[in-house]
Amino acid sequence: MDDALWDAVGDPMRRTLLDLMLIGGPSSATRLSERVSVTRQAVAKHLSVLQRVGLVRARQEGRERQFSVDSEQLARATAQLHEVGRHWDERLGRIKQIAEEIERSRQN
After folding, report:
1. What is the pLDDT of residue 88?
2. SS3 for 59?
3. For a designed S-S bond to 68, which of 26, 58, 103, 107 qualifies (C-beta 3.0 to 4.6 A apart)?
4. What's the CATH code of the domain at 84?
5. Who's near 12: CB < 8 A, 6+ residues apart?
6. How many structural domains is the chain composed of?
7. Which domain holds residue 15?
8. Within its chain, how far is the Cα of 85 from the centroid?
9. How many CB atoms lie within 10 A of CB 54?
């Protein structure tokens, strides 16, 4: 598991920014800040974290940087999440099995 990646997407504001870019395409920190309840500087810091883990890419366009979601890294994150979910399903299935065995032994 990539802990830095999960730390980055663990923040609700960063997930919101990712959602906004997935829906609306590339965007600047200024445009994104107009759609959320934090300052442009806060948005820029969140985008910096997302860029550092590779979830977003930036390109200079005039005076501003345009940020877009890196679909390959997002696919990697999604695959990791799926794998974590599969492991938890297995663990929970085993816990259920143990609980059922305990319940059967109490009934006998």
Report:
1. 92
2. strand
3. 26
4. 1.10.10.10
5. none
6. 1
7. 3-107
8. 14
9. 17
